[in-house]
């Protein structure tokens, strides 16, 4: 039986010493990402959010590309080829700054780039991935439609053969990066499904300068304001035959991309939670009421203790799933466990942290309200909590309850 004395050093942001489970290389990657964000994002993100803009986005993308953050977990074609844990730690730091910044990186790398890397032709990969990895080209991912969010199998966007060409018509909604994108990965129904009675969804690599393609920006958002969001409108967009992804059919293609993005979210949400918790912890130590700091009162300590417990549990879950993804891969329900738990807990942490700041908690002088409103979007994109609950329920019971 071991009777070793635990080290006396304690870090209130990592009370469980989860850092001890990380390698020196993983810590170095995390530190590099944090330094970049501290220099290029953190001093400005509050103003960007309040104004509802993300200026110099291409300059920021190039900086991320130089660090290897774009498609960092992919191999070849100029991608960094780092581990799933490396990518997860980067997402945590990105979202500790802002969910919109993490969305820029994860839509680029886990949706658009992964879609091309996993399902595109060799020509698609050679044409787009090196430029996207460098941040010289921006991608977006067109799946969600105005009337079909959680039910993508019934999408109305349609790709019809005309000779050897494809002609696409339809509309996608809530598409991160679409107004500034150079290439869009678009999923559409085809005649293959209509003829066979099966799901004939196919993916297409669509240069955004193709005639008939437009991407009007969505304004008046109350969340993810430091993120560029738009529609995709396809009006007789004519593409050559080789624009279609050659092999994948049905929902397997887009859902595989969504699982990549969801993995980044389950890490990233813990970054937003950490920022809210650390802000509340600092504030509680400085704010005095009844003659002493409010951190000395039991109810405040209970809130802070609950926050650090949930952050510890959520980060451990993310690390476990990351190690498993690197070793053997993840099943969809395992990603759902992480996304459902970590995002809902992060929102609870932000709300509790806000109460410690009282009225100051709603001020944009502090980051908590910004993170709280951002997480309301993160909660429902890449799968609503209801859908993730049902995915877990199906895995547990063997019964599908989606319809």
UniProtKB/TrEMBL annotation:
The keyword Transit peptide applies. The keyword Ion transport does not apply. Keywords: FAD, Flavoprotein, Oxidoreductase, Transit peptide. Its cofactor is FAD. Residues 24-136 form the Acyl-CoA dehydrogenase/oxidase N-terminal domain. It holds the Pfam family Acyl-CoA_dh_1. It comes from the Bacteria. Residues 140-237 form the Acyl-CoA oxidase/dehydrogenase middle domain. Residues 249-396 form the Acyl-CoA dehydrogenase/oxidase C-terminal domain. PANTHER family: GLUTARYL-COA DEHYDROGENASE, MITOCHONDRIAL (PTHR42807:SF1). Belongs to the acyl-CoA dehydrogenase family. This is Acyl-CoA dehydrogenase. It comes from Mobilicoccus caccae.
